Amino acid sequence: MHILEFEKPIAELEGKIEELRHLSDAGDVNIADEVSKLQAKVDKLLRSTYAKLTPWQKTQVARHPERPHALAYISTLIEDFTPLAGDRAFAEDQAIIGGLGRFRGRSVMVIGHEKGHDTESRLKHNFGMAKPEGYRKARRLMEMADHFQVPILTLVDTAGAYPGVDAEARGQAEAIARSIETCLDVRVPLISVIIGEGGSGGAIALATGNTVLMLEHAIYSVISPEGCASILWRSAENAKDAAEQLRLTAQDLHKLNIIDSVVPEPMGGAHRNTDLMMQTLSMAVESALRDLGGVEGGVLRARRREKFLEMGRAGLS
């Protein structure tokens, strides 16, 4: 497992446990009691460490290479998933995955950023940074869901929209704006989940939902800490300071009413117990769908629009 800097004391204890288990396997030495004591220390240290993570440490957890991404959630939570490709205008963008499936027996349209899990897949999915065709595909799928009265579930995990010259030439800003517009316009329940990084307009293009959930150690901000630091301090080395000022943690954003609910992660983060994370998120999404079920389409749309307008009013006050 990839070890973060602040996890090194925990990793050292886990290493000792593995050594003892190896000795036990090699002979008749009974070290069960010692392993149990060390495991209790690991659990205590893990719990205390993750209970007081700084914003920068949460940023590291949100970016953890072994953290489950959109495809992992889709393969576990969505049955009979049928991917739908292309924006019908330019190309297929693998940074955004979308399609129809069934969540707990109910038809849903799922759209999410996919970062990839190794070098090959990360290049294929462009590290989750979508180009205009990705957001136009998302818009097409949301309109399809609206037409067939199917709820929409979005899984947000991106450092931001792709900033390349080719993306700008094809109308990146316009594509993001249209995607946000479509989020605000559909008349079906739209539930958004920030599962890792929620970076800038590239995130909000899929996160303008009736209900916005956010995993406990995910982050969500207008700019990355490194980008903010390079602007304010002229150096990305101040990213830690920027993370403190951005209020990008789920806990801060819940207090500010930017998100609706914080979804607890397993002790040590989603990457340490993926199965438990899937179960917890499944229950949270089911609860959100149940709360929105039966609400008339026009009311859903009006509530969604008012929700985001109120954030703007709060920011001006």
Description:
With 317 residues, the chain is of the alpha/beta class. It is 52% helix and 16% strand. It has 2 domains: 5-52; 59-316, 2-enoyl-CoA Hydratase, Chain A, domain 1. It contains 14 helices and 8 strands. Strands 1, 2, 3, 4, 5, 6, 7 and 8 form an 8-stranded mixed sheet that branches. Helix 1 packs antiparallel against helix 2 and helix 10 packs across helix 11 (239-246). The termini are far apart. The mean pLDDT is 92.
Which helices and strands occur, and which strands form pairs?
Layout: H1 8-26, H2 32-51, H3 55-62, H4 70-77, E1 78-83, E2 96-103, E3 106-113, H5 119-124, H6 132-147, E4 152-158, H7 165-169, H8 172-185, E5 190-199, H9 200-207, E6 211-215, E7 219-221, H10 225-232, H11 239-246, H12 250-255, E8 261-263, H13 274-292, H14 297-316
Parallel strand pairs: 3-4, 4-5, 5-6, 5-7, 6-8
Antiparallel strand pairs: 1-2, 2-3
The amount of beta strand, in percent, is 15-25%
Uncertain spans: none
Structural class: alpha/beta
What is the count of DSSP helices, taking H or I runs of 4+ residues? Answer: 14
CATH topology type of the largest domain? 2-enoyl-CoA Hydratase, Chain A, domain 1
Shape: globular
Query: Roughly how much helix do the residues carry, as a percent range?
Result: 40-55%
Number of structural units classed as domains: 2
Radius of gyration: 21 Å
CATH class bucket of the largest domain: Alpha Beta
Largest sheet: 8 strands, mixed
Question: In the CATH hierarchy, what is the architecture of the largest domain at level 2?
Answer: Alpha-Beta Complex
Q: Care to count the β-strands? A: 8
Mean pLDDT: 92
CATH superfamily (homologous) name of the largest domain: 2-enoyl-CoA Hydratase, Chain A, domain 1
Distance between the termini: 46 Å
Q: Give the H and E element order.
A: HHHHEEEHHEHHEHEEHHHEHH
Subunit structure: Acetyl-CoA carboxylase is a heterohexamer composed of biotin carboxyl carrier protein (AccB), biotin carboxylase (AccC) and two subunits each of ACCase subunit alpha (AccA) and ACCase subunit beta (AccD).
Domain CoA carboxyltransferase C-terminal: 41-291
Enzyme class: transferase
Catalytic activity: N(6)-carboxybiotinyl-L-lysyl-[protein] + acetyl-CoA = N(6)-biotinyl-L-lysyl-[protein] + malonyl-CoA
